[in-house]
């Protein structure tokens, strides 16, 4: 391994000169790892990043130390995200071990003064957290859609008084198969995937002939049948069928009124929509990675003319712009339904950390992203080689030169039809782990961003739309980060399995943060049922993800469960006795979260139906069907949207949180 110290010649620079230049440029020359050891960044990494950033650019990375003693970029998170941009939740779950668990406890912001300036007027609210693609109804096409989202919002609000539904990122993906499964590695973060369209809700559908209706329902039939099975979600099959149906609808002449609305939408979303639709047209012709395209279209500034001058490409671009308009309409309808049902916030969207390097955003604005690098996480106790998420980082200088408008535009686009925004790995607004191309993830470095520009951009976007902003600040996080977010009116995140006191025991409810969204787990952590049954250890052992013997892991997991069992008993949520059933324990844990002062409480719908499988297991790709699992119960039988009112566990969990 390369190291800064002990190598006196770094391209003519001494050790101290290289470190000075790096620090002045916003690059951390060292960081504290999960063992609390100081790790020096390799000289080659510092030089590679310096070659991109240059020296001394205070406008881009200013604010390294704030008035309240803030210090940015000094502590490495314990692998906040998983493979290919998937957020990790430190997969060991409740069996947090040794220094990692202790560090987490020491840096939990509940341990210091509450400084939130959140000014929302809705008071405490709760809602379901869902992976929308997994929630199907009898009429959805093998994949949850925006009609299903509206139905879920209306039912949970009217039946149980839910104030929001938090969904996975709905960002747009490839326009041609194979379709990426991960919601966290999109082609663009500015638009929504048409996979979430409900074909029958498009007004032009009702202008089709009876024969055309039959043709569309023949396309839908095998997918609607799949809703009744526990088969994995097949996005390729779903998109192939929907694309064929949408082509039929695209050929239906629109009314004059509809044409005017479409034209207004195009004008409103220009130039982003124009670039996205052009990229889609070219992706259909050349494949969904612009880095492999011919030179004349790989340059977005030249490609638009090529698209407009080619009738086939121009039609395709118009089709994809039309799809975004339809998606925007259905998303607006879902939010309107949620608000009419009485939800305080309605739909809370999730924003992925970055985008695919071959996707539309990277093609449209290459100057804003840094080629030759990807973002990730340094080594930790669970991923000792570190992680590379495969996403290019923002260029801090160019982002600053653009006045942070690209960030503001991104936040505004995501909040377009929603009452809230959860920013995944919100620490990325302050510092990101950059990995040079060809290097392993452990040979990266933290690069600072101006948090006094990026974080207020998020706060302002939320304020402009009356939305709530939530930062996913799980993991080992310097206290100043969560405090600074709170000072800007941005809620943090607390998860039960990670909420421990300095001795590693469960954090009492009264010591949780007020300014946060509180949950039992996340989409990267197995459901409660898997912890109680021990399946979360069995699965990870089978996948080779344990770094200690399985017997020891199982013993530590059981010990952690025993601690939480005692904690919920102490709160009067379970009677004295042996470990309860998974369903009873699930209700008790949500009752525990309900006793905290958190302003928002999220109920995982997977927990509420007794699901045993994780939606995502960080550290895996093809070894596990990440992001492809439909909503099922404890017996792995499919649960449809229409089934929810009759499920006793759903009712009991909702009542536990409400009371």
- In whole angstroms, the N-to-C terminal distance is 56 Å
Task: Count every helix, treating DSSP H or I runs of 4 or more residues as helices.
Answer: 23
Number of strands: 14
In round numbers, the mean pLDDT is 88
Q: State the shape.
A: globular
Q: In which order are the strands of the major sheet placed?
A: 11-8-5-4-3-14-13-12
- Beta fraction of the residues? 5-15%
Main sheet specs = 8 strands, parallel
Rg (CA only): 24 Å
Helix content: 25-40%
| Uncertain stretches of 5 or more adjacent residues | 1-9, 63-116
What class would the helix/strand composition place it in?
alpha/beta
Tell me about this structure.
With 659 residues, the protein is α/β, with parallel strands linked by helices. It has a domain at 194-326. Helices cover 40% and strands 10% of the residues. The longest helix has 30 residues, at 311-340.
């Amino acid at each position: 391994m390369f190291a800064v110290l002990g190598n006196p010649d770094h391209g003519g620079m001494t050790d101290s000169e290289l470190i000075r230049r790096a620090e002045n440029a916003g690059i951390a020359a060292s960081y504290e790892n999960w063992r609390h050891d100081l790790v020096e960044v390799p000289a080659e990494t510092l030089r590679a990043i310096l070659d991109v950033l240059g020296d001394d650019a205070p406008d881009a990375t200013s604010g390294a130390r704030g008035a309240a003693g803030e210090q940015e970029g000094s502590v490495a998170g314990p692998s906040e995200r998983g493979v290919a941009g998937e957020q990790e939740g430190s997969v060991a779950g409740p069996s947090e071990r040794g220094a990692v668990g202790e560090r987490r406890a020491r840096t939990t912001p509940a341990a210091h003064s509450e400084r939130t300036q959140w000014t929302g007027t809705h008071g405490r609210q709760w809602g379901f957290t869902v992976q929308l693609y997994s929630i199907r109804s009898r009429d959805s096409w093998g994949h949850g859609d925006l009609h299903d989202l509206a139905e879920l919002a209306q039912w949970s609000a009217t039946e149980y008084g839910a104030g929001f539904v938090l969904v996975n990122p709905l960002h747009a993906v490839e326009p041609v198969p194979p379709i990426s499964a991960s919601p966290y590695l999109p082609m663009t973060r500015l638009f929504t995937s048409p996979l979430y369209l409900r074909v029958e809700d498009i007004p032009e559908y009702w202008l089709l002939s009876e024969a055309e209706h039959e043709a569309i329902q023949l396309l839908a039939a095998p997918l609607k049948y799949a809703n009744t099975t526990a088969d994995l979600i097949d996005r390729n099959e779903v998109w192939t069928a929907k694309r064929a149906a949408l082509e039929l609808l695209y050929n239906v002449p629109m009314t004059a009124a509809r044409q005017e609305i479409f034209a207004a939408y195009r004008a409103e979303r220009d130039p982003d929509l124009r670039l996205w639709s052009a990229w889609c047209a070219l992706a259909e012709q050349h494949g969904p990675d612009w880095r492999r395209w011919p030179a004349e279209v790989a340059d977005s500034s030249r490609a638009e003319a090529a698209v407009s001058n080619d009738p086939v490409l121009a039609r395709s671009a118009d089709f994809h712009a039309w799809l975004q308009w339809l998606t925007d309409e259905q998303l607006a309808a879902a939010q309107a339904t949620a608000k009419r049902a009485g939800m305080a916030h309605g739909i809370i969207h999730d924003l992925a950390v970055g985008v695919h390097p071959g996707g539309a955003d990277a093609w449209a604005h290459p100057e804003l992203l840094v080629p030759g690098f990807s973002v990730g996480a340094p080594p930790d106790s669970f991923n000792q080689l570190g992680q590379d998420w495969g996403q290019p980082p923002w260029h801090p200088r160019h982002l600053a030169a653009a006045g942070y408008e690209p960030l503001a535009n991104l936040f505004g686009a995501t909040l377009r039809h929603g009452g809230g925004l959860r920013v995944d790995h919100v620490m990325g607004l302050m510092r990101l782990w950059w990995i040079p191309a060809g290097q392993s993830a452990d040979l990266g470095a933290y690069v600072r961003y101006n948090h006094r520009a990026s974080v207020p951009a998020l706060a302002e976007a939320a304020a402009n739309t009356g939305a709530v902003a939530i930062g996913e600040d799980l993991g080992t996080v310097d206290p100043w980060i969560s405090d600074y977010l709170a000072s800007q009116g941005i809620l943090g995140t607390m998860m039960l399995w990670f909420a421990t006191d300095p001795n590693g025991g469960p954090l009492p409810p009264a010591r949780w943060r007020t300014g946060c969204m509180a949950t039992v787990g996340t989409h990267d952590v197995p459901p409660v049922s898997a912890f109680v049954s021990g399946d979360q250890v069995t699965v990870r052992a089978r996948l080779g993800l344990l770094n200690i013997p399985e017997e020891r892991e199982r013993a530590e997991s059981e010990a952690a469960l025993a601690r939480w069992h005692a904690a919920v008993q102490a709160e009067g949520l379970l009677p004295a006795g042996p470990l309860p059933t998974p369903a009873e324990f699930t209700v008790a844990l949500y009752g525990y979260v309900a006793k905290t002062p958190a302003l928002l409480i999220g109920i995982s719908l997977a927990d509420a139906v007794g699901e045993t499988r994780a939606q995502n297991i960080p550290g895996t790709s093809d070894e596990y069907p990440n992001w492809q699992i439909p909503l099922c119960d404890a017996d792995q039988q499919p649960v449809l949207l229409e089934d929810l009112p009759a499920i006793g566990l759903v009712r009991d969990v909702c009542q536990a949180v409400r009371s």
